[in-house]
Amino acid sequence: MEELGPQAHANDPECGQRPVPALSHHGSQRVVLLQTATLLGVLLLGYGYFWLLVPNPEARLQQLGLFCSVFTISMYLSPLADLAKVIQTKSTQCLSYPLTIATILTSASWCLYGFRLRDPYIMVSNFPGIVTSFIRFWLFWKYPQEQDRNYWFLQT
């Protein structure tokens, strides 16, 4: 019987996942923990900078808006890291269609909200979410996903 859930494509070379013994992934956990700690450190340094070294509230607000915009833009651009793999393999199995829909709805909503407030930090930082969603929609159109056999079994 085939597995459902996250392990359904564990042997799929297109997704870059390989089955590993349960205890041998501690090295990758250490890397993720280090990355998380580094990001938390950056956030704490940013917090300290904005509240301790920038006494002017107006300048603090402007710099904080820029800081948050950079993080938001990098969040929306991160799925583009898989584009080369998608184009090379001509498969969108590693892209999430529901996440693409959620991204375009969320980023478009925030852009409209920022437009109403005339806030460039909200508009500019969420616009890449719309652009990257359209790129992913184009990829889904160009390389349609094959219907997952496990999903087909669930429908019958």
Looking at this protein, list some descriptive labels.
156 residues; mainly alpha; 6 helices; flat; disordered N terminus
Your description of this structure?
This protein is mostly helical and 156 residues long. Among the domains are: 32-88, no CATH class; 95-144. 69% of the residues lie in helices and 0% in strands. It is flat and about 55 Å long.
Topology:
Blueprint: H1 26-53, H2 57-77, H3 83-89, H4 97-117, H5 120-142, H6 149-155
Helix pairs in contact: 2-5, 4-5
- Oligomeric description of these chains: single chain
Along the chain, the helix and strand elements come as HHHHHH
- What helical percentage do the residues reach? 55-70%
Strand content: under 5%
Task: Summarize the entry for a quick read.
The protein is mainly alpha-helical and 156 residues long. It is 69% helix and 0% strand.
